[in-house]
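Severity: low
Component: inverse-folding endpoint
Summary: output formatting inconsistent between runs
Steps to reproduce: submit the following structure tokens with default settings.
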């Protein structure tokens, strides 16, 4: 027996799953102070965006810890300087820092963390960067995030 309500429900679920998929990205960090992505594009259709960080190395967080931090490009130097002063206990993020738009916790080898943020903090055309705020890591561990374009790399 044909049930239009069930067909509509199934189609709705499949479209939600499809749209959620484009509103997230998986990114890996390594013991060699690298991310596997250099760019992330957040589609303007996403109301929320999730970053799933995995540390594929083996070193502990106090030696080679990594996080994923998002800020405007011009704010990175201040965020990393203040984050270094905040220390490992604060994930190298100054508590309450309004320049930080989103961040994961600091993780060590074999660990994972995720952050989901409201895309209303982003503006099309603004230069954003993601980076690791562990002291000195941002010189190598960084990339560009754009908003209002096609889905992530």
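Observed output (run 2 of 3):
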């Amino acid at each position: 027996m044909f049930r239009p309500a069930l067909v509509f429900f199934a189609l709705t679920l499949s479209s939600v799953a499809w749209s959620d998929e484009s509103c997230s990205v998986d990114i890996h960090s390594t013991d060699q102070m690298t991310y596997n992505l250099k760019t992330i594009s957040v589609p303007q259709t996403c109301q929320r965006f999730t970053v799933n960080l995995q540390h594929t190395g083996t070193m502990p967080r106090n030696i080679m810890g990594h996080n994923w931090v998002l800020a405007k490009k011009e704010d990175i130097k201040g965020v990393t300087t203040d984050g270094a002063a905040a220390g490992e206990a604060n994930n190298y993020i100054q508590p309450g820092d309004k320049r930080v738009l989103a961040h994961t916790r600091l993780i060590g080898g074999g660990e994972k963390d995720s952050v989901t943020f409201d895309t209303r903090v982003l503006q099309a055309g603004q230069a954003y960067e993601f980076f690791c705020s562990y002291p000195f890591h941002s010189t190598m561990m960084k990339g560009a995030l754009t908003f209002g374009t096609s889905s992530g790399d």
